[in-house]
Amino acid sequence: MTGRRGGDGLRCMLMRGGTSKGAYFLADDLPSVPADRDDLLLRVMGAPDPRQIDGIGGAHPLTSKVAVVSRSGAADADVDYLFLQVGVDEPTVGDRQNCGNLLAGVGPFAVERGLVEPGDAETVVRIRMLNSGSIATATFATPGGRPEYAGGTAISGVPGTAAPILLDFEGTEGSATGSLLPTGRVRDVIDGIEVTCVDNGMPVVVAAASDFGVTGDETPAELEERLGDRIQALRVRAGELMGLGDVTGASVPKTTLVAPPRAGGTIGTRTFIPLRVHASIGVLGAVTVATAVLLDGAVGHDLAELPAPGEPMGIEHPTGRLDVDIRLGTADGTDGTDGPGGVPRVRRAAIVRTARKLFDGTVFPRPPGDPHGPT
């Protein structure tokens, strides 16, 4: 730990990133020992408690998130970003996945904290995502050298509009598993359900909603009540096949049920994260699902209304849609998604998000050793 604390408090910025909300910290402001860091963050967020009433967590996985940011020592990056998923009613802090929504706030946060020199009108920040080692480039407006949060870009799941942030991804294939298709197959069968296990920034198990006896248009609450146990059994078995080991208590893989689009998009989705259903869909989850449905023979490929070449794919979700620009090619460098090159390679993955600074100041964690929380 450094001396950057005020009293018993801790410097913190609360930001909305995409359709998530989280606490952003400089790495130097947190303990360097992971176990000590995680204990502190549990006390900051108010976990374990389903209401997180004694912390700043929002009582949902989408609002119980942390971004840890520092200057990068890598030649191809400006800053390093570690994402931590803090449990709500369990005392867990997970680092096995990226979060593309909180990623949207990393560039502006880096400028706010002086980690990156801003441009007069626009700033480009190359971000190394430590959870996977892959690189994302964030491009956003900085008029007068300050991040601009107000703007006219709307994203589904967030009221109003804000300034756009363009995120380009590099090297996201096999982010947690080492392979775009970690089982080595386009389709697998688990407990009688056909699935596609894919990892392009987020390990995801893609299954047809109809195979679970649902339409894929149900509300998140209805799906949680009807399918929670079956989804857990499916993802635990899929985790083994994907080389992730025992994922019983892990946040990945996610499970996405796909269905034909209903609102002019490419594919309809409902995503379990891992057991709660996302109110929309995660950025890298959407990138991964879009990649899957482009693959001939994958679950969802036959359900999708694929756009014209070069056009973005509209991933429909419970609160709207998310447009993703995905370009695939074969491993030998030719265009297309099949042929002698074998497994496709991701040539481009890009998305537009927004972010907003909500609070900047000092957060006061629950005291260590509190009998109502972890010790």
UniProtKB/TrEMBL annotation:
InterPro entries listed in its UniProt record: OMA_tautomer-like, PrpF-like
Chain coiled-coil ranges: none
Leading EC class: isomerase
TM regions (residue ranges): none
Molecular function GO terms recorded: isomerase activity
Name of the protein in its database record: 4-oxalomesaconate tautomerase
Lineage: Bacteria, Bacillati, Actinomycetota, Actinomycetes, Streptosporangiales
EC numbers for this chain: 5.3.2.8
Organism: Actinomadura algeriensis
